[in-house]
Specification:
mainly alpha, 9 helices
Length: 224
């Protein structure tokens, strides 16, 4: 399969509006990660624009788990914005920390709860797709393909990553790196080539973000 088949052919059936919508969401997503690397509070307003657009986009492509996580991102961005604003001395930049044992425990709970919730949503997806009618509907998970199962996994990974980022914990980048890598083939499979490239760039930016946050914490610790 060549570059055209992977990235361009799916867009032959898209409207100009759909293409512009995905491109806009991707651009604001990249801006959000850039501001996150800089520990800049603008990570949240730019992120809200991106995630709100992706809620609509992913719903139309049937990626319910990823749609839910983007809705969660939107809500958590408001929460994170408030936390970062309170923790910032200059109302722009914040300090970062390592994750505590208690927060790792909470992260584990969030991960498991997310898996259960998204699997439940997919279980009832035939009912949802049938306009909430049980007429000739068979509930179950047989309709899921490998991309849907990856969607379940990445939803849980990103949920924990978003929570740790709101708490300004360095390890949030590890979750973004893993989740972004998984999303590259998943989005290609769903015909979202622009978004697939975005996640590839996200992976590289997340590696840089981890190193920058870790370096910043080391520098601050040494200075104190």
């Amino acid at each position: 399969m060549n570059f055209y088949d992977l990235f361009l052919k799916p867009y032959e059936t898209y409207t100009n509006f759909q293409i512009c919508l995905e491109a806009t969401a991707a651009i604001f997503g990249l801006l959000s990660v850039y501001f996150s690397i800089r520990k800049n509070i603008w990570v949240y307003p730019t992120g809200i624009v991106s995630t709100a657009l992706y809620v609509y986009i992913l719903f139309t492509f049937g990626l319910l788990g990823d749609m839910m996580i983007n809705f969660y991102y939107t809500v958590m961005s408001v929460y994170g914005w408030i936390l970062w604003a309170k923790s910032s001395e200059d109302h722009v930049h914040v300090k970062v920390f390592w994750t505590t044992k208690k927060e790792w425990f909470i992260s584990g709970i969030l991960f498991v709860l997310s898996l259960i919730l998204v699997i439940a949503v997919y279980f009832y997806k035939p009912f949802i797709d049938n306009k909430f009618s049980m007429d000739q509907v068979n509930l179950g998970l047989d309709h899921l393909d490998w991309a849907n199962w990856l969607d379940v996994l990445t939803t849980a990974i990103f949920l924990v990553g978003m929570w740790l980022m709101a708490k300004r914990r360095i390890e949030n980048w590890i979750f973004w790196i893993i989740g972004d890598l998984i999303c590259v083939p998943m989005m290609l499979h769903k015909g979202l080539g622009i978004t697939s490239v975005q996640y590839l760039v996200f992976t590289a930016m997340a590696v840089v973000g981890y190193m920058e946050w870790k370096k910043n914490l080391t520098t601050v610790s040494s200075a104190s």
